[in-house]
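User: structure tokens for this one?
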Amino acid sequence: QVQLVESGGGLVQAGGSLRLSCVVSGIIFRLYAMGWYRQAPGKQRELVATITSGSSTNYADSVKGRFTISRDNDKKMVYLQMNSLKPDDTAVYYCRAGSLNYEYWGQGTQVTVSS
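Assistant:
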């Protein structure tokens, strides 16, 4: 079975940092594009950052320059380093693995940024 398990969320003050981790099992990890998405209360899920199997990255404008996505194919993990956090970053953050034919999601981890 495929599993994606996020960790690293929590409560942090504005301006602080968090690093989210997602460990993946059940797929050939290096062949999948990975992404972080988030959903705030009352809002639709939005893309935060993606990293392809070739390690090309893409970021939402709202997090560009503050967040960094990375992957470790040996550990089958993807990370989201979040710096200079803002209250608007408060959301449940989800890890996603995707290929041309398949899509898998983690359970989410809560990030709360206080002002």
